């Protein structure tokens, strides 16, 4: 109960301006500051809280710009090694580990096209588990075959193979470095980053011009690796104006951002790095069979200063990328990824 | 001391620019701030639907008809039955009570679209299904009675082009049920191809309350 001398003093009215310079500093810890941009009804309001200990305005809206659910973990497995080694690359659709039915991994490395593919499979599968002729996905390459036969228990070979290109690693120890999946309508898939959704951020250039900057926070579950290398995650951002056309296909941010860095693309932003140890198998901890999906570890960045250059256009369109260590042969996955932004005064 | 009201009329006109009050409607409550220049109370924006290329959302839209997006598909076959992959709707609760209290919805849409062949034209809209507990949706194939088409954006057929609306009053009629469930629809307006491929879509909404309508 309030004593006789207590008085209720309403908080001071919020400070309202269109630039940081005009907003100035807060009058007390927790003071509200409001930036307004545009003209009603298309008026944008950004609300800040003054943090006296850091002398900063901290945005009270946390913009969750990327969320990745477990709609099958984002997968870098179905991409050529040349794309995933030490390059920022967008995740692939579908997860090879979770393919229902027979599948395996290359036992012997090959350069496609190759007449024969030797494949390690789970012990419950053999040549009879596969169609006698058909198509396979080897990473992102489509290979046709005309025959399949047993080599030994847990190992089969596809013959009469044609199609595809690029070097594919094999692993005689049984760890799957290059997934081989029967291609059907049900597991076709393609690149694109399934399982992520993005929220577009508005009035970005205006906010930077007004004197503010962004902070990023990224977290997610990243799985272990069989070759003790790690998978990094980070976002790139398309920075575009309303009605802007990306133009030629070469201006579109491709799967391999190293090769396709386009004028509108900013980044990479804050990074998180997955574990550089194997974490055991999902189904058989401590062992590495081709069917194993390895464990996942939570990695989180703190709020981190914006490092992706100064946006000069109105919108940010976030894109999630991953990068493997240069030596990797592995197939990183990530899920439950969250990337948030907030506005702050520098 | 924060004032609380159960209607926009009860909120009245703000005492000063940026004043915060609470409006209660149904079992909901939201903070609103007074915008002196516009003479309205505005709530903080919320997303109602967001989406990121999951390879792409593909609709073989019936020309001239609003059609539910059924992707993803792609040149190598896609994933049948995995529609709505990675587009996330967030329902709006008690819009009926909010409207009865005098609030109105504003929306804004940002999207980037990839049309296969330049010259096609599409509209995109958020279609809200106005539902009560236990209501049954008989079909999602086309916008049905009871659905409310929200803010629309249009493509001129250029490939990979952004389209945005900015904040504008929503086109929905007055909701009269407890929940607005957002869905993403497209309409093909003619051209050679009838596929629409969406790369990103963000739809946000907020309440606006005008005490002197």
What composes the largest sheet of chain B?
A: 10 strands, mixed
Helices and strands of chain B, in N-to-C order? Answer: EHEEEEEEEHEEEEEEE
Low-confidence stretches of chain B: 71-85
Looking at how many chains there are and whether they match, the oligomeric state comes to heterodimer
Give me the Rg of chain A, rounded. Answer: 25 Å
Radius of gyration of chain B: 19 Å
Tell me the β content of chain B: over 45%
Main β-sheet description of chain A: 7 strands, antiparallel
Question: What average pLDDT do the residues of chain B reach?
Answer: 79
Estimated structural class of chain B? mainly beta
Overall mean pLDDT of chain A: 79
Q: Would you identify the regions of chain A where 5 or more consecutive residues have pLDDT less than 50?
A: 94-98, 185-193, 281-291
Biggest protein-protein interface?
A-B, 58 and 52 residues
> What's the number of extended β-strand segments of chain A?
24
List its traits.
heterodimer, A: mainly beta, 7-stranded antiparallel sheet, 4 helices, B: 213 residues, mainly beta, 5-stranded antiparallel sheet, globular
Structure report:
Chain A is mainly beta and 346 residues long. In chain A, strands 5, 6, 16, 17, 21, 22 and 24 form a 7-stranded antiparallel β-sheet that branches. A 7-stranded antiparallel β-sheet of chain A has the order 11-10-15-7-9-13-12, with no helix packed on it. The radius of gyration of chain A is 25 Å and the shape is elongated. Chain B is mainly β. Helices cover 5% and strands 49% of the residues of chain B. Chain B starts with a strand and ends with a strand. About 7% of the residues of chain B have low confidence.
């Amino acid at each position: 109960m309030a004593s006789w001398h207590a008085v209720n003093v309403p908080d001071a009215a919020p400070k309202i301006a269109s630039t940081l310079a005009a907003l100035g500093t807060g009058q007390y810890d927790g003071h509200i500051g409001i930036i307004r941009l545009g003209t009603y009804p298309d008026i944008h309001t950004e609300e800040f809280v003054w943090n006296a200990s850091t002398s900063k305005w901290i945005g009270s809206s946390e913009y969750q710009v990327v969320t990745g659910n477990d709609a099958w973990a984002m997968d870098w497995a179905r991409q050529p090694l040349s794309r995933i080694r030490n390059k920022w690359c967008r995740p692939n659709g579908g997860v090879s580990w979770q393919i229902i039915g027979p599948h395996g991994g290359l036992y012997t490395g090959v350069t496609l096209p190759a007449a024969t593919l030797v494949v390690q499979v789970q012990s419950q599968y053999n040549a009879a588990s596969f169609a006698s002729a058909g198509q396979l996905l080897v990473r992102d390459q489509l290979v046709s075959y005309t025959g399949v036969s047993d080599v030994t228990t847990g190992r089969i070979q596809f013959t009469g193979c044609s199609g595809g290109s690029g070097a594919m690693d094999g692993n005689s120890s049984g760890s799957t470095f290059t997934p081989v999946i029967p291609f059907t309508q049900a597991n076709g898939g393609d690149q694109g980053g399934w399982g992520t959704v993005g929220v577009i951020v508005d009035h970005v250039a205006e906010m930077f011009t007004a004197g503010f900057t962004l902070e990023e926070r990224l977290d997610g579950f990243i799985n272990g690796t069989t070759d003790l290398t790690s998978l990094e995650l980070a976002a790139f951002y398309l920075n575009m104006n309303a009605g802007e056309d990306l133009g030629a296909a070469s201006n579109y941010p491709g799967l391999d951002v190293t090769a396709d860095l386009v004028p509108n693309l900013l980044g990479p932003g804050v990074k998180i790095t997955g574990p550089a140890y194997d974490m055991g198998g999902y189904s058989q901890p401590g062992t590495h069979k081709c069917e194993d999906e390895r464990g996942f570890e939570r990695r989180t960045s703190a709020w981190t200063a914006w490092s992706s250059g100064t946006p000069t256009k109105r919108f940010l369109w976030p894109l999630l990328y991953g990068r493997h260590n240069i030596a990797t042969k592995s197939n990183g996955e990530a899920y439950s990824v969250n990337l948030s932004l907030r506005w702050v005064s520098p | 001391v924060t004032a609380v009201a159960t209607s926009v009329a009860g909120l009245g006109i703000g005492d000063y620019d940026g004043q915060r009050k609470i409006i209660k409607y149904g079992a909901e409550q939201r903070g609103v701030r007074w915008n002196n220049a516009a003479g309205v109370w505005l709530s903080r924006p919320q997303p109602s639907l967001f989406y990121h290329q999951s390879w792409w959302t593909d609709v073989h839209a019936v020309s001239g008809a609003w059609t539910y997006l059924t992707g993803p598909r792609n040149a190598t076959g896609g994933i049948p039955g995995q529609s709505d992959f990675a587009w996330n709707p967030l329902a709006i609760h008690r819009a009926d009570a909010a409207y009865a209290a005098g609030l109105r919805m504003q929306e804004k849409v940002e999207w980037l679209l990839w049309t296969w062949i330049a010259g096609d034209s599409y509209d995109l809209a958020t279609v809200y299904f106005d539902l009560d507990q236990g209501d049954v949706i008989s079909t999602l194939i086309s916008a049905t009675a009871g659905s409310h088409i929200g803010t629309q954006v249009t493509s001129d057929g250029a490939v990979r082009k952004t389209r945005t609306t900015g904040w504008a009053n929503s086109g929905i009629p007055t909701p009269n049920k407890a929940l607005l469930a957002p869905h993403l629809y497209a309409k093909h307006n003619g051209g050679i191809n009838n596929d629409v491929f969406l790369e990103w879509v963000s739809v946000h909404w907020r309440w606006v309350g005008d005490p002197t309508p």
